[in-house]
Design brief:
Elements: H1 9-50, H2 54-64, E1 70-72, H3 78-85, E2 88-89, H4 108-117, H5 123-134, H6 137-146, E3 149-155, H7 158-161, H8 163-170, E4 178-181, E5 184-187, H9 195-200, H10 202-205, E6 210-215, E7 219-224
Parallel strand pairs: 1-2, 1-3
Antiparallel strand pairs: 3-7, 4-5, 6-7
Helix pairs in contact: 1-4, 2-3, 5-6, 5-8
Length: 227
C-alpha cells in the first residue's frame, strides 16, 4: 500500500524545516546584530577616548560630582558618563523615532536587527532633552528639575554639529538659531536664547542659571543653579 505523502518521513522533515527555519534565521539575525552593535558601541567609546580633552572631561566630571548625580547631556554621551564617570544621565540611548538621526545603516539586515533587538531609549526623555536645549533657560529649568539634574555637560564643536538634529527633534528650524559661515558657527538673535547655545557660547551669551566649573576648550561642565 502506497504511503500518503503527509504520512511520509519527508513530509515530517519538510514541516520541521518550515517550522524551524524562521527561528534559526531570527537567532542568526540576533547574534549578528548583537555582535556588530557591541562593536559599534565600543567604536563610539573608542572615538571619545581618542578625542583630545574628552577623557579629561569625563574624568573631571566624576571628581566634582557626588555618586547618584544626574547629568544633563545629549543622549550619545550617556554610556561614556555611566561607564567612565559613574554618574547617571537622563537618557543614554536613542528612541526608535529618532533612529534616522543617528546614522542608521544602509544595510537592511542590520536595520531590521536594530528594530528587533536594539536597546531603545525613552522617546519622551529624548524629546525633553531636545526641548531643554532649545528653550530659554527659564523655560528649560522646570524640565531639568523634573529629572533632578544637577550638572550639565556639553562638547565643542560636537554639540554644534548635532544642533540640526536636536532642533529638528524639538520641532524647530535649526537655521533660525544657528548659522554656519565656512567653518564658523554663530548663534542668531533667536539662538542666543537657546539653552544649549548659551552653554556652548558662554563667553558671549553668559548663562544665568548655570555656573561653569570646568572648561578645557573641548568639554564644558556646568552646575545647574535653580532659583
Amino acid at each position: 500500500m502506497k504511503t500518503k505523502f503527509w504520512h511520509s518521513k519527508w513530509f515530517v522533515v519538510i514541516l520541521t524545516v518550515i517550522v524551524l527555519l524562521p527561528a534559526l534565521l531570527l537567532l542568526a539575525l540576533r547574534i549578528d546584530f548583537l555582535t556588530h552593535e557591541r562593536e559599534r558601541e565600543d567604536a563610539v567609546l573608542k572615538y571619545f577616548s581618542q578625542q583630545e580633552g574628552m577623557p579629561e572631561t569625563f574624568s573631571y566630571l566624576e571628581q566634582i560630582t557626588s555618586p547618584g548625580s544626574v547629568i544633563l547631556c545629549w543622549w550619545d554621551y550617556g554610556r561614556a558618563i555611566t561607564e567612565w564617570s559613574h554618574r547617571e544621565v537622563i537618557e543614554a540611548y536613542p528612541s526608535r523615532d529618532i533612529w534616522h538621526t543617528v546614522g542608521s545603516s544602509r544595510n537592511p539586515w542590520h536595520n531590521l536587527g536594530a528594530q528587533l533587538f536594539g536597546t531603545w531609549g525613552s522617546s519622551e526623555k529624548i524629546h525633553d532633552l531636545a526641548r531643554i536645549f532649545m528653550l530659554s533657560e527659564e523655560e528649560a529649568l522646570p524640565i531639568i528639575g523634573s529629572y533632578n539634574a544637577s550638572y550639565a555637560l556639553v562638547f565643542t564643536p560636537d554639540d554644534l554639529q548635532k544642533f540640526r538634529w536636536i532642533a529638528e527633534i524639538a520641532g524647530y528650524n535649526a537655521t533660525e538659531y544657528l548659522t554656519l559661515q565656512g567653518d564658523v558657527y554663530q548663534p542668531t538673535l533667536l539662538g542666543s536664547q537657546a539653552t544649549l547655545l548659551r552653554l556652548l557660547f558662554d563667553e558671549i551669551l553668559h548663562p544665568q542659571h548655570f555656573t561653569k566649573v570646568f572648561d578645557n576648550e573641548k568639554g564644558k561642565i556646568y552646575r545647574v543653579d535653580y532659583p
